[in-house]
Each structure stands twice: as structure tokens, then as C-alpha cells.
Amino acid sequence: MAKNSENVVMAGTSGKLADQLVIRREQNGDLVYAKKPRKTEKTPSASVVKQRSRFGEAVHYAKAALKVPDIRAVYEAKSRTRDNESAFNVAVGDFFHAPRIRMVNTEGYTGQPQSSIVIRAIDDVKVAAVYVTIQDPDGAVVEQGAAVQHEMELDWTYTATATLATLEGSILTIKVSDLPGNQVTEEHLL
């Protein structure tokens, strides 16, 4: 594969050349010359079929997401921080990456209303929501609700609204989701 950014003869050229070479223009204006891809005669494996299907879903998601102005703005802002990557490509990539929970701090949680739990959740683009459920030792749900994102957009705080009689043995469940709807869930014993 060869690249060319300032060729007067080839300026504006793209497509197939002599049924052997493919020429395409990158987002930054560079021309890329590559050998024409060949179709394979092999039947794709189950994992290849699954990945192609998943990629199709990612493309569908990206097209739909970029029609929503607020979501489009997020992907466009992220694309400006990456070399030669369009908002569409950022959205496709985001579809494949689930968010991660980096830290759960329960030191401020006493089981009383107004005590808090801090969650650090990250994603390659943006964490959309953090949801908290607290169960007593018998498994009964005491309370649940959304955490609120801090101004710095890294940590989320859940403020308790109910009284938990027994902390020991109680279960804290945290569910984090990103813009495409990828989710990760963690359980912690209090």
C-alpha cells in the first residue's frame, strides 16, 4: 500500500485502475494505492459470520446515532481528538467496547439516607448511565436508582434514600452503560 498527498497527475483520482489497483482518498486528503482485494471461495466459518453480523449491527448503530444531534456532537468531539477518524468510525468502534468499572468507594455509605457511594466508570467514548441497586442480606431490594455524574465526568455518586438495617452481608450491584447500550455489571458485598 502506497500513500501520496501531493501528486498533480493523480489529483482527484479514486476507484479501480486496470482491474489491479484500488485508489481511495483518506479523510485528510491523502491518496492510498492498494492491491485490489480478491473474493475468497472459502465458506466463512461461524465466527466470521458472527463477526460480520456484529459489524453490520455496529454500522447500523452508527448511522442511527449520528442522526441524533446530541449523540452526533459527542462522536464528533471524540473524532477531533483522534487522527483521521470520522465520527462514524468512532461510533462504530464504540459499539464494540463496553464500559468498565474502575473503582467503587463505599466508605461514605453508612446504610442511612444521604450517605453516598462513589463509582468510577470509564468508556472509550462516554459513559451514559450508572445504576445502583442495594439489597439486604436476605436479597430483598432496599433501594435502587441512578447515580449522578460529577462535573469532571469521571466519577458518579449514588446518594442513598432508604435505611439499610444491616450493612454486613448486603449486596451492592452496579450497572454501567455506554451510548450504544453496552453494559457491565458488578456485585460487591458491603
Q: What global shape is seen?
A: elongated
**Beta strand count:** 12
> Strands of the largest sheet, in order across it?
1-4-3-2
Whole-number mean pLDDT:
88
Q: Characterize the largest beta sheet: strand count, sense, and whether it forms a barrel.
A: 4 strands, antiparallel
Query: Could you tell me the strand content as a percent range?
Result: 25-35%
Uncertain segments: none
Class computed from helices, strands and strand pairing: alpha+beta
Q: What string gives the helices and strands in order?
A: EEEEHHHEEEEEEEE
Distance between the termini: 56 Å
Helix count, per DSSP?
3
Detail the topology: elements first, then pairings.
Blueprint: E1 2-4, E2 15-17, E3 21-25, E4 31-35, H1 46-65, H2 69-79, H3 87-95, E5 100-105, E6 116-122, E7 127-135, E8 141-146, E9 148-149, E10 155-159, E11 171-178, E12 183-189
Antiparallel strand pairs: 1-4, 2-3, 3-4, 5-6, 6-10, 7-8, 7-11, 9-10, 11-12
Helix pairs in contact: 1-3, 2-3
Describe the structure.
The chain has 190 residues and is an alpha+beta fold. The chain is 21% helix and 35% strand. It contains 3 helices and 12 strands. The strands form 3 sheets. The protein has a 4-stranded antiparallel β-sheet, with no helix packed on it. Strands 5-6-10-9 form a 4-stranded antiparallel β-sheet, with no helix packed on it. Strand 2 and strand 3 (21-25) form a beta hairpin. It starts with a strand and ends with a strand.
